[in-house]
Structure formats: structure tokens, C-alpha cells
Amino acid sequence: MKWQYRNPVHIVFTQAFHKALAELIGNKKNVLVMCSERFRLSRDFARLKDSLADFQCFTNIERNPSFESHQKAIDFATSAAPEVIVAIGGGSVIDTAKVTRMALFSSCRNVQDLFDSQKKPTKKTPLIAIPTTHGSGSELTMWATIWDKVKKTKHSVQNPLNYPDHAIYDVNLVTSLPITTSISSTFDALSHAWEALWNKNANPVSSHFATEAIRRIAAALDKLVVPISSETRENLLMASMYAGLAFSNTKTAAAHSISYPLTAYFNIPHGIACSMPLHSLAKINFRQMQNELPGIFSRIQLGSFEELWERMLKTTRGKVPFSLREYGISNEDLEMLADLGFSKGRMENNIAVLSRQDVLNILKDVF
């Protein structure tokens, strides 16, 4: 057996993110904070202002950021010329910061230039990522997503130099998440974990992190009810971190590949879109994992995937739509979605090779 694992991100787990951030920034003066407008209006932003003497703030960030959204961030950061970038938010905010940082240290002024392999990085701007959801894992990976909202496609910018330098986790930043976002982000982390397990690039370390993420999420699913306790939030934040550490080395696989057109064409929230295929994929992928399954289910403290799936369905009931028809998808759309479900760089990571008919059957199962 030959394998390797690497994740260079320095992780800080705290209940005072603003103090940890101030320590990491040190004496750097030119700081760019990228966050959502919602965060800018929060009490936590006020704490940030108390801890940092001075900084510039950029909030014009789309959910599932487009080329245009990323370009606005690059234009702002080019003018600001920051010594350090701080991203506080969910996956969209952190991905925008990663794309912006990549543009700055590759001397790109146009977001399209990031896909030019001839662009070589120069000086690297430090990036500190602080997640405000327990799902995306973007704070621990080298990838950043760009959506083409005209052509309805998703692109990924990746570079080993584009891992954030630091990730700060603070459970206080996720306590105000609405229940719908809480479920969606939790399911996103769950998808990351399963896809890291049934992945051609899996290794013992990534699989250990993935099973720990699933164990924590499985134990927390029946506690995703209003109000969600701080203990449950902390457990889910840890689970998201473990899932991020897992798929940072494997990439995602078929579930994410199938999900992209569901989000692009029908605006299904990402965490819901990528978790819908899990039940059907488990049946297919487990055929390739018979030797590993007893150990996996023992560690995650479940008897079967069916038990987990029932908990997931119970969690969504009355809170989040969890079938394709509930998002306006018709039977006639399934053929198109099956054609579009093969995303390069994702589908081929799946441990089992899927045919178009397999993907169509998966979509029918969650219709």
C-alpha cells in the first residue's frame, strides 16, 4: 500500500475568534476583511472592530459567486493591496477570498486569467478563514468555486498554494444559523465525508477523519430542532472540520457531480442537492467496500446506511424540501440533468464507475 496525506492549514478552535484573529494578524496594518452584509451588521462584527485597529471591508459577495461577483472582489482587493485577507462567512465568502487571493499573488486582474496555466504565483498574501456555517469545509481546501450563471456551469480554481494559512473555528459564529441553513450545511459536510470514503483517492488518514465526521453528524441529526443547543453546534462544527480534512485530500465525487446542475438550474441549496443522491450511491458504492463496511459502521455507531438515511429524512421533514419535484423539477427534466451530472474532476473520483443510466436512476430515486 502506498498513500500520502497533506493539509497545511493551521487550525484554531476557540470561543473568542476576534482575539485569535488579532493574535494571528499581529502588527500587519493593511487588512482586508471579506464577509457577508449580514455579518457586517452583527454583534460579532462589532467585536471584530474592537479587536482590529483598522481594516477595509468588502461585502458585495453573491451566494454561489459568479464570475462577475468574483471580479468585483478582485477589483476591490487590487486597489486595497492588502497585507492579509480575512474571510468570515460560509463557503461563498471563503471561496471568494481564495479566488481573490489567487488573483493577487498570480498578478491577475481578470478572473478569467486564473484559468491560464502560464500565470505563475508571485508573492503570497496570507489568508485567514473563519467559517460561520458547519458545512462547506472551504477553509481547509485549495479549491474555490466560480459559477457561470449564464451557461449554468460550475468551475473550480485550484492550487496547492491556495489553502488558507489559518482556519479559526468559533461555535458562537454558528449559533444564529436558521434551521434550514443548519440542515443544508450539515448535509453538505455529511456528503463530503461519505464521498471521501467511497473515493478512489481515499487513504487511511482521510478515511479516519471522514468516519469521525459521520459519527458526529449521525449523533446530532435528531437534535437539529429549534432551538439548537450550543453543544450540538460545537459537535457539528467539529464534524465539518473533520469532513474538510478528509475531502481536502480526496476531492468530492459523484454526489457533488450530480448536484451541480440541480443547483445551477433549479437553485436547490448546495447541501441539499449533494446529499439527495447519497442513499442511492451507498447501494452502488458499498459493493466495492464490503471489507471496509463492518469497521466503518462500527466506528460511526450505526447498524446500516438505512438507519442514517431515516434520520436524515426525519430531520428534513417539515423543514426542508428533500425531493426533486418539490423544487419544480419535472420528469422531463431528469434526462437533461442526467446528461449534465458528469462533472470532470469529480465523477471520476467515485469508487464505482457510474453510467448515464445509473445517474438517471439516482435522480428518479429522489424525484
Question: Would you write up a description of this structure?
Answer:
The protein is α/β, with parallel strands linked by helices. Helix 1 packs parallel to helix 3 (43-51), helix 4 (67-80) crosses helix 5 and helix 14 crosses helix 15. The chain has helices at residues 17-25, 37-40, 43-51, 67-80, 91-105, 179-197, 204-220, 230-250, 254-266, 270-275, 278-285, 293-299, 305-316, 333-340, 356-365; strands at 10-14, 31-35, 56-58, 84-89, 127-131, 143-148, 153-158, 166-170. Strand 6 and strand 7 form a beta hairpin. The model has no long low-confidence stretch (mean pLDDT 95). The radius of gyration is 20 Å and the shape is globular. The chain folds into 2 domains: 10-172, Rossmann fold, CATH 3.40.50; 177-365, Dehydroquinate synthase-like, alpha domain (Up-down Bundle). It has 15 helices and 8 strands.
